[in-house]
Amino acid sequence: MEKILVSLYCSSAAALLFTITLIILTLHNYSRTGPGIQKEIEKKFGYYVVFALTRLAAWLFVIFFLTSLPGSIAAYSISKLTALMEFNFITGLTYCLISTTLITTYFFLHQLLYTPGTIQLSFQYRFSRLFVIWKILSPKIISSIKFSLILLLSITSAIALFFAIQENNTPLVLYILALAGLYAYIYYATIVNEPAIAKASPQTKPNVIMIGSDTLRHDRLGGSNYHRNLTPNIDKLSANGLRLYKCITPVARTAPSIASLFTGLWPHNHKIRDNYPSLADCKLPQPSLIDILNEHGYLTACISDWCGADFAKLSFNFKEISVAEDQWNIKLLLRQGPSLIRNVLSLFTNNALGKRFLPEFYYLAGVPLIKSLSRECRQLIARSAKNSQPFFINLFTSATHVPFNSEYPYYNLFTPKDYKGESRFIMTRLASAEEIIKKQEKTSEFFDIPQIINLYDSCVKQFDDEVGKIIDYIEKSDLSNNTIVIIYSDHGADFFETGCWGQGNTLVGNDPSGRIPLVMKGPGVPSGVNFKPTTRSIDVMPTLLDLLNIPIPTTLDGINLIPYVKTQTSPELFAFQETGIWLGKIPGLHPEQILYPNIVELLDIPDKKSGTLVVNEKHYPTVIRAKSRSIQNEKWKLIYIATYTKPVYQLYNLEKDPYRDVIDSHPDIFLELKKLLDSHIQSDTLFESAN
Questions:
Q1: What are the angstrom distances between the C-alpha of 252 and each of 61, 103, 218, 369, 544?
Q2: Dihedral sign computed on CA atoms, order 381, 384, 386, 388
Q3: Which ranges carry the Sulfatase N-terminal domain (predicted)?
Q4: What is the DSSP string of 621-688?
């Protein structure tokens, strides 16, 4: 029993030393994730800071304790093999410190090779200093280190067990066996196997699988004259199905965009106008697509990472949901802790155990989870296919979202081998809202645009490969003939085509952030159609309901596109857009444009119990009033810019010169579109009351 106590004391002491050291280091350089808020508001959550740090310290202790225990076993084994060393507290502590250092180093090197951008997300130093180590690494080296550590643990445990049995020390024997069982459980609990091919049960209604990627640009798909072939799997779907070539989202921001996609309503009708909706507005005013499918006997499920938290936050009402919690919540942001602690804990949490016990780190913003989410989707398909109940699965990932963090070997696909800049793995310096705001205020000269595009394209390629795995699984499970597959995004991205980077900040010209890829394939979907007329994301819901032979509610703003697609005629639609909340004084804003307070003053937490960040009630009318608006069809786009005196209008010919204002040359077109745009704006009751 004495040796067990020494082992536990040594491991506890080592874990405590590492934990205290980390806490002291972080207190000298404390920085949390998420946007800043007013100090007096944040002070009200001082108690939660204490709780969050205590909780993080406890988890650090647990992880360091588990990683140090093999050291105490090794110390005991070596002491039995040589008379030069005695097994006591000092030797045990030394080996425990070595054990934690070795295991943590392995996890660090593993992450440095496979997802280096994840380390860089919270790294407080020049990441290029790690290049020399990264260049040495390879999958073979990482596997060798892993094998060596497991072998070392196995040998020392076997030796310790041998001597414990020889000494007839039953408690020590049970202790060593228990530790072996614990580590075996941890090891196998983090291994996720591919699902077996499903044996689909007969179903009378079509299934639906929607696969989306946040910030996926439409022009990365084939047929867009892009110089890289990034999406062969999506292109195959498109060739055998329907592509809405010019599909416009009403707001290039995630929450309002998916709200329109899944309700068929304009933003001023579903009330989600930005990424910070109030708890009251999260209750959608009428049944969503998911509500309707629930009523018609569908099993509805959603899988996502941090970018898809709104699927749980808004009242879509999926029957099954596996997504991150609300990302705009001060309590979550405080639980994610300071940067150094994030760096350490994220080494150990990208697995099933991390998802279960520390989901705020598993779902940490910027961490690529596309492979895990894709596998989870296939597992859900396998489970759903066994039932006769039709299913609707929505997979939404951050695979193509800033900071454009992809996994090995994707991040190497397009980056020059001799590239040594800070953007080697991700778009850098985006770890905090303050850094994002500072970067949003910069012009293109500040950025390494070619490298950022290389990173983005790597992410697109990885997303497409995972789409291919899902499509292949559907085909092998004999589900393809009765399953509608939809590829989509919430919005695109600006790479300074409009004068700034990001999305939804301006509506200038042929804004790529407002146009989304939309591909459908399956029963009832016209095959091999590249539909060129202007469509809107609000048209997707009624179109899908028609394909499923479900009555379309008359209250939707969108229309059913199938009759027009079948006859290859234009529905002659106008797409309306509005800007989201921009951060900082971004390039491209009109000199007289109405501005609202900075992000610190703008956000509030009216419900301290929930901790949800929302737009301050007193500033909300200004936010609505400051929005730019637009109307467009195939050829023309008219933009309304709110100023402190009178609106400023800009007109663009999208076919001839999509970024040159030609309003003075086409007064008749201006007046025609202005009448329609004014009517749309006036239907926004919040805008009317704000003015």
A1: 42, 43, 13, 23, 22
A2: negative
A3: 206-550
A4: HHHHHH--EEEE-SSEEEEEE-BSSS-EEEEEETTTEEEEE-GGG-HHHHHHHHHHHHHHHHT-HHHH
Q: What is the DSSP letter of 195?
A: P
DSSP 415-451: S-TT--STTSSS--S-SSHHHHHHHHTS-GGGS-HHH
The Cα angle at residue 390 between residues 388 and 391, in degrees rounded to 5 = 125
DSSP state of 492: -
Q: Which of 175, 142, 171 is nearest to 157 (CA)?
A: 175
Q: What is the mean pLDDT of the chain?
A: 92
β-strands 629-632, 614-615 pairing:
unpaired
pLDDT of 114: 97
Between 261 and 445, the higher pLDDT residue: 261
Tell me the C-alpha distance between 531 and 518, whole Å: 10
DSSP 84-103: T---SHHHHHHHHHHHHHHH
Residue 640 pairs with which residues in a beta bridge?
629, 649
Distance CA 589, CA 433 (A): 20
Q: How many CA atoms lie within 13 A of 545 on its CB side?
A: 27
Mean pLDDT calculated for residue range 78-89: 86
**Residue 152 half-sphere exposure toward CB, CA atoms < 13 A:** 18
Q: Lowest mean pLDDT: which of 213-227, 438-452, 519-533, 663-677? A: 438-452
The whole-angstrom separation of Cα 595 and Cα 557 is 30
CA distances from 451 to 416, 495, 512 (A): 9, 12, 19
Average pLDDT over residues 669-680: 97
Query: Which pLDDT score, from 0 to 100, does residue 201 have?
Result: 81
Integer Cα distance of 640 and 143 in angstroms: 58
Contact 308, 339 (CB under 8 A): no
Q: Which of 124, 63, 23, 49 is nearest to 346 (CA)?
A: 63
The C-alpha angle with vertex 183 and arms to 180 and 185, in degrees rounded to 5, equals 105
Indicate if the pLDDT at residue 439 is higher than 80.
no
The tokens of 76 are what?
């005991």
Write the pLDDT tens digit of every residue in 528-546.
Answer: 999 999 999 999 999 999 9
